[in-house]
Amino acid sequence: MSLTAARGRHPVSAAWRDGDPQGRRQWFVSAKPLGLARGRVLPGYRLAYETWGTPAPDRSNAVLVLHALTGDSHVAGPAGPGHPMAGWWDGLVGPGRALDPAELFIVAPNALGGCQGSTGPASTAPDALPWGSRFPALTVRDLVTAEAALADHLGIASWALVVGGSMGGMRALEWAVSYPARVRGLAVLATAAQTSADQIAWTSAQLAAIRGDRGWRGGDYYFAPEGDGPHRGLGMARRIAHVTYRSEPELAARFGRSPQPGEDPWAGGRFAVESYLDHHAGKLVRRFDAGSYVVLSEAMNLHDVGRGRGGVQQALRRITATTVVAGVDSDRLYPLEQQELLAADIPGAARLGVLSSAHGHDGFLVEVDQVAALLTDLLGAVRTAGGATW
Predict the structure, then answer these.
(1) 25, 71, 282, 365: least buried by Cβ within 10 Å?
(2) How does pLDDT run across 357-367, given as a tens digit for each residue?
(3) 244 in any annotated domain
(4) Does 5 fall in a domain?
(5) Is this structure's pTM higher than 0.90?
């Protein structure tokens, strides 16, 4: 049975596996070993990606869209075979939208280490067994190195725009620092130049929840019976994370101290807000993999664009792209102060955008109209600066 086939029980892993419906995915397969920042080598890898639109002859209209921790390549489009969720930024990509396939060639890869078609812990290692605990630790810089190889494969010398939020924003920033000549426009949303102690602490609790699950089996759980994987720990990690993704005023307004309908907290039932967290935990364990959650969360904890580059300010001086840095005014995980500092340190007077939202960190996903306005203005500036005709 496919790991994603069981619906009545918790799957051991909801990673996409060979034999599952391909959906809109395309493949980039590299047989070249990938040297990693922490000294290991990945002997070849695959990236799943999706595209919208047609590349210009010189590829000057290419846009790179980078997902957050539990996202994937399915930025736009309905749920369906191969895609358990509808596009996570569906309102941004499509005819007449900010990222219009009639004008732009839009590319969205599933990050290396992810679980929706790209090589990660659930993938098959050279010995024909799942990588599991043997999968090497990654950094955000490693993810971007793999994405640069994908760009080479697609013949894209430079991106008109690289955009991402949260972990996607880390990757976008790393792209602009590592490959300044390949990024003409940069939109960095709800992220920072380096992960803070507070952010590391929240992630540490999530990782402890996963590793403390008896179903984790040290990361080698892929042959466990259905229902016996680390779904409890992954669900708890999602509960912890989701509290940081939303704002306190939103939770108070939506739920207050109301009980879940039909339940009495005084008799062992749940509050409505507990049911809300349970719902999001259940959704994640049916579409994600605990191993990928650990690998990518640790990569986020290690994020520091200044490492080995003389510090953050020195590293950010490499950026030559026309840049927008945007934050959410209610974000308690990546507070707006971090984006203000980031914008101030990027040369060329990076524009600071503020997304007004009650939804906290998730505001960069929810406030599509505000994000669209920022991207439309930024693409217009890139067109003007480069004399583009697209």
Answers:
(1) 282
(2) 999 999 999 99
(3) yes
(4) no
(5) yes
